[in-house]
Amino acid sequence: MGFRLITADSSGCIYALTDADEVLFYFDDARNGTPRWGNGGVAQQIGSGFEYQRMVADAGGVIYAFDAAGNLSFFRDLSRDGTENWANGGVGQGIGTGWDGFVDVFGGGDGRLYAIDGLGDLYFFRDLARDGTESWANNGAKQKIGEGWGEYRQVIGGGDGVIYAINEGGEILFFKDLARDGTQQWANNGQGQVIGDGWGNFVAVFSGGDGILYALTPDGFLLFYQDLARDGTAHWAFNGSARTLGAGWLPGPETPLTIEGYAWPLSARPGGSVKFMVSSMANYDVSYYRLKPAANGGFGTQLTPLQGQPGGLQPVPVEAWRTGCGWAPSFSLTVPANWTSGLYAARCSSALGDDAFMVFAVKPKIADRKKIAVLANALTWNCYNDWGGRSKYTVPVGPQLSFERPNPAITPVETGQIDHLVRAELWIMGWMADAGFEFDVYTDIDFHQGTGFNDYRAIVLSTHPEYWTGKMLTRLETYIEQGGSVLYLGGNGVFEQVELDTGKKNITVMGGDETRLRDGFYFRNLAPPRSEREILGVGYRYDNYMTYAGYRIENSGHRFFTGTTLDDGDIIGEAGRNGGGASGWEMDTSLPGQALATAVVSANGNDDRGAPPSNLVLLARGANAGGFGADMTAYDTPAGGVVFSVGSISFGGSLVDDGNLQTIVANVLNECLA
After folding, report:
1. Closest by CA position to 626, among listed 549, 571, 547, 572
2. DSSP class of 218
């Protein structure tokens, strides 16, 4: 389940429209950045069949809904507590037409609506009745109050005349309509005042009134910010740092997908077979791609001609998230002998215009193995997948999560959003290939099951390997003890233990009990503790989430800086494709956690556990505001290998463009190959 639209009023009521056209109700009881939710944070369904393209909440339970034909309907949630109790029996009252002429509509409170047309002109309307009868200020005539509003990626009504706009550079600007009656009277002569940056990384931002802004991240976290000044000066609660209110708030498609599918197994060697299960409203064409990002925005090379397939819908079980879909195979692939190891996808293109990508790895022939292995994070892909109703982050949690269901979030296609799954992993693999490094690709499922990894000189962990099994961690420890080297080019890695059952094709999280707290399954909280910091040199902390910066050099004399002209104090990786600088999103620190072994720690601030190896070298540290940054570290192992870590999800998005980062990582790889 994903959200198509989300809107909120000024009292904590949040309404979400799902991709199944259901209306869900949430209540932010605190409205101050602490996660205190009505109904225990569980969404309450209060409506269905809500086939609207836009939705704007107003005070008193009022909701304005706009359909594709431009009709405006009035609804009112009488209960405002999660019970289904609508004015007019839940039947929308038509109060206007012609709204399809606007590219955006947002609320201003007390019946005020602002609309932006295709030319970027801003118009004012006001519903005087607010009861479902048609009574508009200015006889319903639009009142032009501004121009140039089409240049913003998102505009948000903050109430009381306040309007926030996010530009293409990610800056958030403050405007205030002083008149609020359709005449042009703006604070600061209508000039937007920049009050923050980094807002381009969110998939959606919506207002809760009183300066409150809720932001959704691509990985489904709901963040709280509050503009305390509300006058165009930058004065934010918590010094501008986000407070996390919840998880599982994943965006869904604006319209239902006409084709979906999944693959199993998720990896195969040449000569092996992969089956593809597809549900499609129409006939479709299949082609296979080797995935690799291109400078023109492409996602890979087409390897086969289009092959027509008949359409047909397959049934979805009630608990598909747990049981899997159980769909019949639609077609299969015997991996050709000449396909080299890497990430691939079956692209299914529906006659109705939608594409579905089913990603899988091609493992190497045993005789053709290279010296570097890269692990794709299939366990993490699954934990963030809420298709069928639940994920690791929904409320309630899905305690068992099946691989046998579609996962639209692992598309290789450029979306313009930051990414922590397949697309981000491909940035790192693409750079390695362009730099001349040969490598083999496996899923982390293969690492859990497989043998032969000790033959590799180096193993690369990429981007966001958050969920691991205990067996995988043991295998990594053994690999290092026997002389293997590790490059950890990600953040929030090897963080939480899950169980994998390849026979049932699922993973179990939190011991299979959705009522338990996840903290007890952090590797650093196991009995005995197995902190990732002891192996990787760094470990994740929550308390500076979604900030970005470059790395400040701390030890420029280290051998991994050979070939650069860097000095201590220099900043590298200040920009990137994944939200900002190379140190960002979720970050790991080498700073030791001092909690007692018997305590269950939150991994937030000083409430942490685990120390790095005593010979760890701090190479660079993220210059992030608001607390700490990612640590770039290295240590030599007693068996002759090296463990190099960057501690940041956003690192790969900077690696592809930053020459200094490329030199550093190339130095590590070349040492492993020597």
Report:
1. 547
2. T
Question: DSSP string spanning 11-66?
Answer: TSEEEEEETTS-EEEEEBSS-SSS--BGGGG--EEEE-----SEEEE-GGGEEEEE
| Phi/psi-derived region of residue 595, left when phi > 0, alpha when psi is between -120 and 50, beta in every other case | beta
SS3 460: strand
Q: What are the phi and psi torsion angles at 61 (to 5°)? A: 85, 5
Distance CA 335, CA 300 (A): 17
Q: What is the pLDDT of residues 52-77, one digit of tens each?
A: 999 999 999 999 999 999 999 999 99
By DSSP bridging, strand 284-291 and strand 300-302 are antiparallel
Query: How far is residue 55 from each of residues 16, 139, 504, measured CA to CA in Å?
Result: 9, 23, 41
The tokens for 647 are: 């501690």
Q: pLDDT tens for residues 316-359?
A: 999 999 999 999 999 999 999 999 999 999 999 999 999 999 99
Q: Which residue has the tokens 């509300």?
A: 230
Report CA torsion sign: 443, 448, 453, 454: positive
Residue 664 identity (one-letter amino acid): I
Residues 658, 572: contact at Cβ < 8 Å? yes
Each residue of 522-535: pLDDT tens digit? Answer: 999 999 999 999 99
Mean pLDDT of the chain: 95
- Residue 227: name the closest of 214, 219, 236, 239 by CA: 236
